[in-house]
Amino acid sequence: IYTRICEIDNADVGARMMLGAIEREDGNLELAASHLSTATSLDPDFTEAWVMLGGVYGQLERLTDSEAANRHALALDSKLADAQLNLANALKGQGKFEEAAQHYRLALQQQPGLVTAWPLLASALLEAGDPAAATEAAQQAIVTTPHDWQSHFVLGRALQTQDKFREAAASFLRVTELAAEKAEAWFMAGGTLGLSGEFERAEACCRRAIELMPDHAEAYLNLGNALREQHRTKEAVNAFETALEKRPDSIDALCSLGGAHAMLCRYHQGANCFQRAIEKQPDNAKLYRSLGNIFRLGGEFSLSETACRQAVKLNPDLSEAHL
C-alpha cells in the first residue's frame, strides 16, 4: 500500500516513514535507511523519522551518520529518550565513552524504565576509566533486570578492574548460571578465581571455557597458571605450549612457559623461551632480567651477566638486575 502511495505521490512523507519502518522490521536496513533519509529530506522537522534513521544507521554501523541523525532529532526535541540512547550507542561505538555515558544518563532521566540503558551505561563508564561508577550502574542494571547476564558480566569486569577478585569471580560465575554456553564468562571466572587463590575452581572454569572455545589461547594460559600453582608443573607446561600454539605471538605464553621449564630445571628450554620473547620485544628490560636469572640457575654465569647488563642498560632503575 505504502509503495503504491509513494508511486502516486513521491513526496508523501508519512508513506516514506512507514516504508522505512517496514523494511527495518524485515531486516532490509539499507532500503530502510534510503526511505527514512528521503522522509527527512522531504520534511527536515520530522522528528520520528530522524530517530528511526539514527537507529537504522546504528544497526548498519554507520556510526557517524547515526550520531548526526540523532543529534538532529534531539535538536528538534531534547527529551527524546530513544534518540539519547541511539546517540549514546553511536558515541560508544566510536570510542567516545565519557560523552556516551552522559547521554545514557540523559536517556534514563527522561525514561527511567529504559532498562536496556543501565548495562550500556556501566560498560561506557568502565571503558571511560571509572570502574566505581561502572559498578554502581551495573548493580542498578541487576536490580532492574536480575536475569540479564550482560549486566552481571560488566559488573564482574568492573570489580576485577578494582582488584576485587572474589566478588568479580562471583559475578562471572553468576553469568555461567544464566548463560552456561558463554565461554568468555567461564574464562573470566577462571582468571579471577586464580587471582583469588582458588586454583582448583579456576582450573575447572578454564577447562569449561576450553570445551566451549577450543582455540581460546588465554584460557589455556590461565589453565597453566592454575596448574602451576597446584604444583602440577608438567601439566602446566602442556597448557602453556598449547596457548603458544594458539597464539604464537603471545609474550605472556612464552614467559609462562619459560618459567615453568625453569621450575622443572629445564634451564636451556626456559632460556630459549625468553630469547624468543626478546626477539619480539628487544627493548623489554624485564625479559633480559628473567633470561639472566635462568642462565644463572643453569650455571651459565657469563651469559647471565650479559643478559643482566643489557637489562640494566635498558632500564637503569631495574635494581633486581644489578650485578
Can you describe this structure?
The structure is a single chain. α1 (2-8) runs antiparallel to α2 and α8 packs parallel to α10. This protein has 19 helices and no strands. By secondary structure, it is mostly helical. Residues 1-9 have low confidence and may be disordered.
Task: Give a quick rundown of the structure.
With 323 residues, the protein is an all-alpha fold.
Tally of contiguous helical segments: 19
The protein's oligomeric status is: single chain
| Helix/strand class | mainly alpha
Cα-atom radius of gyration: 27 Å
Order of helices and strands: HHHHHHHHHHHHHHHHHHH
Low-confidence stretches: 1-9
- Beta strand count: 0
Strand content: under 5%
- Give the overall pLDDT as a whole number: 93
**Helical residues, percent:** over 70%
Search tags:
77% helix; 323 residues; elongated; single chain; 19 helices; disordered N terminus; mainly alpha
SSE map:
Layout: H1 2-8, H2 13-25, H3 29-42, H4 47-59, H5 63-76, H6 81-93, H7 97-110, H8 117-127, H9 131-144, H10 149-161, H11 165-178, H12 183-195, H13 199-212, H14 217-229, H15 233-246, H16 251-263, H17 267-280, H18 285-297, H19 301-314
